[in-house]
Amino acid sequence: MIGLKEYFKTNYCPSRMTIATFSARPLSKQLEDVEATLGNIPAGSEECRSEPAPTFERPPPFPPSRMGKWLTVEGTEPQSSLWVQWQTRDLTAEYASQPLEYSDHLLSYDGTDSFVGNIVVGPTSTPALSVQRL
Hints:
- By secondary structure, this protein is mostly helical.
- Helix content is about 25%, strand content about 5%.
- The protein is built from four helices and two strands.
- It has a two-stranded antiparallel ribbon.
């Protein structure tokens, strides 16, 4: 537990936070609400304020030593599901162009000639892939 508390102290500070508000109220009122609600958050440690946020590019989450192994997991849901996840390189520099939006569209669009629409099971043409955006 000490490691988690240290990580929090080192990495969670206002300079690394983003606030998104959605409201019909004027932006100035939204800003007032944010300042009233969150304005007293401590500035955080010097380390948190001065160093860039970690990108988690290193260490690699799936080194060769962890690949090619079989893992059986007992499910807790009544319906089977398969989650496919893959690692991308650090996309921080390309953030403004939203590179993951293409992948999201590829995996969630199910219209004519779509990737999802073309994955079928057996002769019933039932889609075998259901995409849920996390």
